[in-house]
Amino acid sequence: LPSAIAVAECLAPVDAGVQQALCQRLRIDDSPLILLSVSRLERNKGYHLLAEALAGLQARLPRGWCWVLVGEGKERPALEAQVQRLGIAAMTRFAGRLDDAALHNLYEAADLLIHPTLYEGSSLVVLEGMVHRRPVLATRAGGIPDKVYDGRNGRLVPAGSVDALRDGLTDLLEWQADWRAMGEEGARIVRERFDWPVVARATLEVYREMLGQGQAPR
User: Fold this and answer.
1) How many CB atoms lie within 10 A of CB 120?
2) For 5-25, what is each residue's pLDDT tens digit?
């Protein structure tokens, strides 16, 4: 049984005015490409690798691109120093913690969700990005391959590799004409497999099957 997400609750806060104010505050309102990452800022999330990959792709990225990191954690000072050293500090926004309304509006404003984690459980962040119809670049870690299908709703790459992240993002940039369709596919996957009512029904069926086989509940 998969982790579940409340699709309706994720979409309820979406508001054009909130998005505009948020983008202005983060200074991304004029950006032609907004890359979004959401999680605790910890070493295992792989952001140090993504920073290296982005620095190596600057010639391929449009002028004014931005990488927005949502979250806090002990890795933040090291990441701030790293993006400065790599020459991408001006393109990087550390948004800190955001409430649910702001976060879901930021998903709407972003172009791509990037989750370069080294290891993972289920990853609700990936599901949230998919709910908001965003293509996802993610690593083959934990339960992520159950959600992101390579070439269908995003790009999956091996964990722990700067080159893989760079190549995966390069592929997605080349597939830009397909982003809308990829986003719609991601939203469809969530609604059909991961929305709370769907998972609740599946859970009930498992219990019915167990009881039907004469197994006592534990």
Assistant:
1) 21
2) 899 999 999 999 999 999 999
Give every CB contact of residue 215 below 8 A, 6+ residues apart in sequence: none
Question: Residue 29 class from Cβ within 10 Å (0-12 exposed, 13-18 middle, 19+ buried)?
Answer: middle
Which 8-state DSSP code applies to residue 110?
-
Q: Which of 93, 119, 98 is nearest to 36 (CA)?
A: 93
pTM (predicted TM-score): 0.91
Per residue in 57-88, pLDDT (tens digit) is 999 999 999 999 999 999 999 999 999 999 99
CA angle 133, 134, 140 (to 5 degrees): 120
What is d(CA 89, CA 164) in angstroms, rounded to the nearest whole number?
Answer: 22
**pLDDT the model gives residue 22:** 96
Q: At what angle do helices 47-56 and 76-86 cross, to 10 degrees?
A: 10
Q: Do residues 96 and 90 lie in contact, with contact meaning Cβ atoms separated by under 8 Å? A: no
**Which of 82, 51, 38 lies closest to 169 in space, CA to CA?**
51
Reported as a pLDDT band with limits 50, 70 and 90, residue 137 is very high
